[in-house]
Amino acid sequence: MQELLLSEKTFPIMGEALNPENTMEMDFSPANTGLMTCDFSDTKSFDHFVFDKLRAAGKKYGIGGYLEHRAIYARSEVFVTDQSDFRNIHLGIDIWTEAGHPVFAPLSGKVFSFQNNAGFGDYGPTIILEHELKGKKIYSLYGHLARKDLKGLDVGMTIPAGKAFCHVGPYPENGDWPPHLHFQLMWDMMGNWGDFPGVCSQREIEKYRAICPDPQVLTGYSPM
User: Fold this and answer.
1) Do the domain assignments include residue 87?
2) Which helix (H) or strand (E) holds 112?
3) Alpha-carbon distance 35 to 109, whole Å?
4) What are the protein's GO molecular function terms (predicted)?
5) What is the per-residue pLDDT for 117?
6) Any idea what DSSP says for residue 73?
7) CATH code: domain of residue 53
8) Residues 41-61: what's their mean pLDDT?
9) I want to staple 218 with a disulfide (CB 3.0 to 4.6 A). Which of 99, 106, 195, 198 is the partner?
10) What is the Rg, in whole angstroms, of the alpha carbon atoms belonging to the chain?
11) Measured in whole angstroms, how far is the alpha carbon of residue 164 from the centre of its chain?
C-alpha cells in the first residue's frame, strides 16, 4: 500500500517543502530526557518548550511522531483506558508551527466529515478528507485546527490538491495543545465519523500500523 502512496504526485501540506533547513525533528519519546524539564499538563509551559526549541534552532517547523511511543499523554485523561492498556503510540505525524499557518490538501479529495472534538487534550476542530487512489479509498485527518475552519464546510465538498482549506489552530480551541497539525492517514474509517483514534496502546500497534500508513510521504518532508 505504501507504494501506492509513493506513486502519487502530491502537494506539500504546509505549502512548501519541509527539509533540514526549515524543519527539525522532534522527539517526545521517553528516551528524550529533556522532557523532564517541562510540565506538559500546563499548555503554556508546553508551548514554550516546543517553540523555544524551534527558535533556538532557527527552524520554522518541527516534525515527527509516527508510531512514536509518546511520554506526553499523561497530561490528559483522553488517552486513558486503564493503566495496563494506556494509549501512547502516536499514529500520525505532528507538524509544529505557529498558529494561523495554512494547511493545504496534499491530494484531491472531498470532505468526508468534520467536527469539533472539544476537550483538553483532544483534537479540537478536525477535518477528514476522502481520496481515491487508483480505485482504492484512503482518508486523511487534520486535527488541532482553528474553529473558523469548520464554517462553510459541507460533506462531499470537493477539495482540490494544493488548496489551502484549514489552518493550524491556537490553544485552547485546538484541544489545548501548542499549535501544531496532527496529520494522519487511514485506509479504513472503522465506522468513525468526525474523529479517529490518533494514538493506540502498545498491544494494538500491528492492527493500526496496517490501517494507518506512514503519512510522512505526503508531508513534503525530505530529511536529505
Assistant:
1) yes
2) strand 109-117
3) 38
4) metalloendopeptidase activity
5) 97
6) G
7) 2.70.70.10
8) 95
9) 106
10) 16
11) 16
Whole-angstrom distance, CA of residue 27 vs CA of residue 125:
25
Identity of the residue numbered 25: E
Our CA dihedral for 20, 57, 177, 29, rounded to 10 degrees, sits at 70
Amino acid (1-letter code) at residue 173: E
Residue at 223 is within a domain: no
Q: Does residue 75 form part of some domain?
A: yes
Query: Parallel, antiparallel, or unpaired for β 164-167 and 180-186?
Result: unpaired
182 and 164 Cβ atoms separated by less than 8 Å: no
Among 69-73, 114-118, 213-217, whose mean pLDDT is lowest?
Answer: 69-73
Whole-number pLDDT of residue 86: 55
- Distance CA(166)–CA(172), nearest Å, equals 17
Which has the closest alpha carbon to 34: 58, 56, 18, 19? Answer: 56
The string of pLDDT tens digits covering residues 156-184 is 999 999 999 999 999 999 999 999 999 99
For residue 42, give its domain range: 2-216
Q: Is 64 helix (H, G, I), strand (E, B) or coil?
A: strand
Query: pLDDT digit string (tens) for 95-106?
Result: 999 999 999 999
